[in-house]
Amino acid sequence: MRNILNLLVTLIVFWVGNQYFNEYLSVADVKTLVIASVLMFAIRFLFSLAMALSVMLIVVGVGCLTTPALILASIVLTPIKLWLLDKYLSGFEIHGFWTYVLLTIVLSIFTVKVKSKQDK
């Protein structure tokens, strides 16, 4: 359920950006909007799998090297995903450095997190 909500939040953020801030973020059509959101979701999902695998590999000793690298990569993962979409998805354009920064912040704020039982 959390993954579907995150996918919908990404879709809404891109749609709002295209509708109200189209000089900074432009999406050609609905198909491109959906593809961009699904690609952001897929990259996030693959990164989650890589992080889980890396943590499991700590037992073997290899995870001690990969886990810190993945944690550092997570800091810049959203801007990298946005840059890849801008570069390789035709019809999806981001204009300006500060647009990347703002989109990264907005997507980070509106990402749905799961509460643990300790937080209740």
UniProtKB/TrEMBL annotation:
Name used for this protein in its record: Phage holin family protein
Entry keyword set: Membrane, Transmembrane, Transmembrane helix
Keyword field contains Membrane: yes
Gene source species: Paenibacillus oceani
Keyword Transmembrane: yes
Annotated TM spans: 5-21, 33-50, 57-77, 97-114
